[in-house]
Amino acid sequence: MKAGFIGTGSMGSILIEALIHSGALNPEQICAANRTPGKVQRLAETYAGLTAASSNAEAAAGRDVVFLCVKPLEYMRVIDEIRPVIEPAQIVVSITSPVLLKHLEDQLPCKVTKIIPSITNYVLSGSTLCIHGERMHPEDKEWIENLLTHISTPVRVSEAYTRISSDLSSCAPAFLSFFLQKYIEAAVKETGISSEEATILASEMTLGTGKLLTTGGFDPVSLQKRVRVPGGITAEGLQLMEQDLDGMFNRLIGITHAKYEEDLEKVEAVFTTKKQ
Ligand SMILES: NC(=O)C1=CN([C@@H]2O[C@H](COP(=O)(O)OP(=O)(O)OC[C@H]3O[C@@H](n4cnc5c(N)ncnc54)[C@H](OP(=O)(O)O)[C@@H]3O)[C@@H](O)[C@H]2O)C=CC1
Ligand SMILES: O=C(O)[C@@H]1CCC=N1
């Protein structure tokens, strides 16, 4: 199996490194290209056998699967560069939400699928969202999901729910880290505990909570119930959060979805202009 990667920024390099570290791919199976060549050359120096391509077409030609890991407004340029070398049997994988499957299927003659990874995949954890295109056969879907199983839990979602699913699996590591950062800063300010000690405690707590919620038989409600000793300290804290965070998550979803709509319009304009 041969894999091509176009764009080796934050997410492209996370995917490459996770697939290598998990044993899913050998560096010899990977050919990657990036606009700024230094980034892909560094990967080739770190992982002997990985090919640094000198063009996007070279990274795409003859690969079983080609991951497009650029930002939404760069897609059209990359597609124009790879279209001449793409064959119908190849699978092109997009990793960004505002570029819709219909855009990719209109522009490319091959099988197309969308996966939304997460920074958590770097430690072979978290989900990858899978939204398969019309040309993907059941065995293609199974094949790509098997590959992703090495670095994540693949979860099939409908394209209509891409944004909220991606908020929960891909944006939320940053949202949760923000919550922890604010908690740690307040702990340091209010009590004098060192930032290092507070960070270790908060991080270990996050890992343990994740395990309880995935394999420990708890859901968010039952976990709170177990910790919230009647008449105890946690109950006081939860009551404060209930009041102060009222409506905050609805506003958060409103904001991410508004930005998504804006991105969708920009992407639509690029792909529509191209079609005319
Ligand atoms: N970061 C995350 O947690 C997640 C990101 N995503 C999606 O992944 C996509 C990429 O995000 P991210 O990796 O964070 O962004 P980055 O900016 O870190 O990476 C994008 C990379 O694409 C390269 N690039 C741009 N244009 C071209 C081109 N024409 N040919 C080849 N390479 C090109 C850039 O090169 P250069 O070095 O020149 O800038 C850069 O290295 C986004 O669409 C995002 O929505 C999805 C899930 C999670
Ligand atoms: O912030 C972003 O646009 C990307 C999408 C999901 C996570 N990061």
TrEMBL record:
GO MF term list: pyrroline-5-carboxylate reductase activity
Q: Where the protein is mainly located, per its record?
A: cytoplasm
Every copy of the Pyrroline-5-carboxylate reductase catalytic N-terminal domain together lies at 3-97
Per the record, the GO terms for biological process are: L-proline biosynthetic process
Against InterPro entries, the record matches this protein to: 6-PGluconate_DH-like_C_sf, NAD(P)-bd_dom_sf, P5C_Rdtase_cat_N, P5CR_dimer, Pyrroline-COOH_reductase
Q: Which pathway?
A: Amino-acid biosynthesis; L-proline biosynthesis; L-proline from L-glutamate 5-semialdehyde: step 1/1
Q: Does the keyword DNA damage apply?
A: no
Note the Gene3D superfamilies from the entry.
NAD(P)-binding Rossmann-like Domain (3.40.50.720), ProC C-terminal domain-like (1.10.3730.10)
Localization (cell) = Cytoplasm
Q: Which GO terms describe its cellular component?
A: cytoplasm
Instruction: Report the EC code(s) recorded for this entry.
Output: 1.5.1.2
Q: Which Pfam families match?
A: F420_oxidored, P5CR_dimer
Cite the binding residues for NADP(+). Answer: 6-11
Q: Which UniProt keywords apply?
A: Amino-acid biosynthesis, Cytoplasm, NADP, Oxidoreductase, Proline biosynthesis
Which amino acids does the record list as binding NADPH?
56
The reaction(s) catalysed by this protein are: L-proline + NADP(+) = (S)-1-pyrroline-5-carboxylate + NADPH + 2 H(+); L-proline + NAD(+) = (S)-1-pyrroline-5-carboxylate + NADH + 2 H(+)
Task: List residues of the Pyrroline-5-carboxylate reductase dimerisation domain.
Answer: 159-261
Family, per the entry?
Answer: Belongs to the pyrroline-5-carboxylate reductase family.
Q: Which HAMAP family match?
A: P5C_reductase (MF_01925)
Q: What does this protein do?
A: Catalyzes the reduction of 1-pyrroline-5-carboxylate (PCA) to L-proline.
The protein's name? Pyrroline-5-carboxylate reductase
- Give the species: Paenibacillus chitinolyticus
